[in-house]
Amino acid sequence: QVQLVESGGGLVQPGGSLRLSCAASRIIFRLHAVSWYRQVLGAQREWVATVSAGGGNTDYAASVKGRFSISSDHAKNTVYLQMNSLKPEDTAVYYCKLRDFDVWGQGTQVTVSS
User: Fold this and answer.
1) How many CA atoms within 13 Å lie on the side-chain side of 98?
2) No. of H helices and E strands in the chain?
3) Cα–Cα separations (whole angstroms), residue 52 to 28, 63, 73, 109, 111
4) Whole-angstrom distance, CA of residue 90 vs CA of residue 48
């Protein structure tokens, strides 16, 4: 019933910024917490950040704290991941997910390289 669609990935130089978007097919983000994960081919999927249903609480992995920011726009039914000061080790496929349910987006590729 519910679909999540990520967008905004691409190629960026080290130190640059990208903003990823996660759009839902129906209004859900007012009621459900949302997380971002990332995965490199052959590696374990890694949790990145979570925003609460009300948008008032956020949490980040140590590897991205201070550089990434997760936020919600309930009017647009969209969750964002603002990524600043990007490093080559941030290169991965990024996925959004409902925190408490097994609902995932299809992923968007982020490549950080000069």
Assistant:
1) 16
2) 0, 10
3) 12, 20, 12, 24, 27
4) 10
The token duo for 38 is 């990332």
| pLDDT 10s digits, 71-109 | 999 889 999 999 999 999 999 999 999 999 999 999 999
CA distances from 92 to 19, 39, 100, 111 (A): 14, 5, 23, 7
> Helix (H, G, I), strand (E, B), or coil: what is residue 89?
helix
Q: How long, in residues, is the chain?
A: 114
Which residues, other chains included, contact 42 with Cβ-Cβ below 8 Å and sequence gap of 6+? none
| 3-state helix, strand and coil shares in percent for the chain, rounded to the nearest 5 | 5, 50, 50
Q: Residue 11 in contact with residue 110, Cβ under 8 Å?
A: no
Flag whether pLDDT at 62 surpasses 90. yes
